[in-house]
Design brief:
Layout: H1 6-11, H2 15-25, E1 27-30, H3 36-44, E2 52-57, H4 58-61, E3 64-65, E4 67-71, H5 77-100, H6 111-120, E5 129-134, E6 138-142, E7 153-158, E8 166-168, E9 171-176, E10 183-187, E11 194-198, E12 201-205, E13 210-219, E14 222-233
Antiparallel strand pairs: 1-11, 2-4, 3-6, 4-5, 5-14, 6-13, 7-11, 7-14, 8-14, 9-10, 9-13, 12-13
Length: 238
């Protein structure tokens, strides 16, 4: 069976459905974005050092338990294709969100142009990352903010197969609305599935006006096995 090129799979994503999910829940799932062989190839990079600029062990910083590595430039082909290909799909949604939240920033059509803006502001370090969790590991609820410039959406792709490679370790998203209790969303993904979600805030339409809600994400405790995830963040770091 011939594998459809990744760029064609990205172009085939239903943008309207993606936007509807994001507006309703702050997250949206894209099934089978990466093929199993692509997932395995990216996950195997974790055992090497060459593609990465830094290695973070979460427990040292109070982030949870587990570890991750930030990719260095130039990015691996699959990582670059996802970052450059998904950005134009998400930029119109990001612009609409900022307009509705009364945030002045607007995003260009091409990711290269947005990266130039980041680099001109001193945010020059690449932020795509590869995460590894083992039994007992988890990721505390957090936001991936690396400087003044922030693209409001990011993507995580599950590279491991649930129940075969690991048990537990669900993706968790929380939403805190003003004067209300927090709402939690737990997403069960298959290998190769991607989840698009809010980095920090998203707009919610109220009875009288639109207001911002605060979003955080994390990963629940892994009961057994090993779990790898690819994170695609569109703004670079200081």
């Amino acid at each position: 069976m011939t594998l459809i090129p990744l760029t064609e799979r990205i172009n085939a994503i239903d943008a309207g459905n993606l936007e509807d999910q994001l507006n309703a829940w702050g997250s949206a799932t894209v099934s089978s974005l990466l093929a199993p062989e692509e997932c395995d190839a990216v996950a195997k990079l974790y055992a090497t050092d060459a593609p990465f600029r830094s290695h973070i062990r979460m427990a040292r910083h109070g982030f949870g338990k587990g570890e991750y590595k930030y990719f260095a430039y130039p990015l691996p082909e699959t990582v670059l294709a996802l970052r450059e290909g998904l950005y134009p799909l998400l930029a119109p949604i990001a612009n609409d969100w900022n307009e509705r939240m009364n945030i002045d920033t607007r995003f260009p059509d091409r990711h290269a142009d947005y990266l130039s803006r980041c680099h001109d502001s001193g945010q020059v370090r690449p932020t795509p990352l590869l995460l590894q969790y083992s039994e007992g590991d988890y990721n505390c609820l957090h936001q991936d903010v690396y400087g003044e410039l922030l693209f409001p959406l990011q993507v995580a792709v599950l590279l491991s197969e649930p129940r075969r490679d690991f048990i537990g370790g669900e993706f968790v998203l929380t939403e805190q609305r003003p004067r209300m209790q927090s709402r939690a969303e737990v997403l069960s993904l298959a290998q190769g599935d991607a989840v698009v979600f809010a980095v920090r805030n998203r707009p919610v339409r109220g009875t009288k006006s639109t207001y911002r809600v605060n979003m955080r994400h994390g990963v629940s405790r892994l009961h057994s096995g090993t779990r790898h995830t690819l994170g695609i963040i569109f703004h670079d770091a200081e």
